[in-house]
Amino acid sequence: MSLALSSQKTKLEIDQLINSVSWYHSVELLPGIVAPGSLPKNGRYDVESLLQFVENNTNDLSAKKILEVGTWDGPLAFKLKSKGYDVVASDIQNPDKTGFNVTSQITGLDVPYVRCSVYDLQRHFDAEFDVVIFFGVFYHLKYPILAFERIAKILKPGGRILFMGSGVSHHFESLEGLPLASEQANLFRQTLDAMDAAGVPLCLSYPGNYLNGDNWFMPNRNALAGWIKSSGFTVGAIQGTPNDWGVLSLRGWAEKTSDRTIHEHGLVGETGGFLSEVEI
Description:
Layout: H1 11-18, E1 28-30, E2 33-34, H2 47-56, E3 65-69, H3 75-82, E4 86-91, H4 95-98, H5 100-107, E5 113-115, E6 129-135, H6 144-154, E7 155-168, H7 182-197, E8 203-205, E9 217-219, H8 221-229, E10 233-242, E11 247-256, E12 265-266, E13 273-274
Parallel strand pairs: 3-4, 3-6, 4-5, 6-7
Antiparallel strand pairs: 1-2, 7-11, 8-9, 10-11, 12-13
């Protein structure tokens, strides 16, 4: 189903707007009018399934304030808005370049947009959100734990984070980004599956080049749970399903239960520990 059913723009105006920017998500903006994005490679971006995931893992969204971190061109944020939900979007990208503002102009849906990094959320928001949506971001970050900590700071007590992202499954590369042979990869996968089943937290670490993308850390379910727990959350659920690229598609939710994060290191003769205020 499209993001909106009609537009105040003419067909010519809509075509000109669509062609004026670069799209990432291939999503139906209006009935029969699709943004020419690269994701997915074949077909349409399944924003309906994402909406269902959000609704199924929160309680009565109609009474909640929502922030989507990493919205890009905004299909999920606009879909939430079309359902009448109170949603704000944020991303590091320029909304004039990604299609976010064009989507707003075409659909007539008005979603507030804050251009900032996940690390800088506290500079723009107080602890005001009931739900933060964090899809497709953490594995692109140098500091994923810091990102979860910063999200916790802008959630209300008992607020919920919904997360999706990539983890380690059965595609392995060398440090230089060269894929391993299938026989060796299968052996590693068996080992990792056994470690995951035993509750061992583990992740791959690359210098931003995994799968030829801006991908730094690929955790298993237990490692992701550890990151989230250390950031002031109680994990509700984490699921993982291998995809066609040999990567684990991770998704789940957690609730903010504390304003205290786990310190990096204890201090001699003092209680607590050292928690650096990292500037990104």
